[in-house]
Amino acid sequence: MANVTAGVEALVLAQPASCSYSLPMSDKLDALLERLKAHQRTLILAMAEHDGLPAQSAIRQVAELENVIAAVEAVAAEETDQARRNGKH
């Protein structure tokens, strides 16, 4: 299970080889959300494969990912609101 529960920091900081800095921020945030949700899902499915309670570290990681997902969603909403306000002026 140690391989499945790699650090959240590594996921957030990792840059895919095809990363383009010219993408709009909303696209970058959407891509980040997809990566975070996919990793969280992988962790949950891996925990479901084992009988008994999952390791506390795995549970903590899922919870941390949920917090990061919520934060990215909040920033994405702020960016959308800001873009709408700027577009109306």
Task: Give a structural overview.
This protein is mainly alpha-helical. The chain is 71% helix and 0% strand. It has three helices and no strands. Helix 2 runs antiparallel to helix 3. It is elongated.
On the 0-100 scale, what is the average pLDDT? 84
What form results from the Cα inertia axes?
elongated
Order of helices and strands: HHH
Total of domains: 1
Estimated share of beta-strand residues: under 5%
Round the Cα radius of gyration to an integer and report it: 16 Å
User: Into which percent range does the helicity of residues fall?
Assistant: over 70%
- The parts where pLDDT drops under 50 for at least 5 residues are 1-5
Tell me about the biggest sheet?
none
Number of strands: 0
Tell me the number of helical segments per DSSP (H or I, 4 or more residues long). Answer: 3
Query: What structural class is derived from the secondary structure elements?
Result: mainly alpha
For the record, give the distance between the C-alpha atoms at the N and C termini, rounded to a whole number: 52 Å
Question: Any key phrases for this structure?
Answer:
89 residues; mainly alpha; 3 helices; 71% helix; elongated; disordered N terminus
Structure in a nutshell:
The chain has 89 residues and is an all-alpha fold. The protein has 3 helices and no strands. The termini are far apart.
Give the secondary structure arrangement, pairings included:
Elements: H1 8-13, H2 25-48, H3 56-88
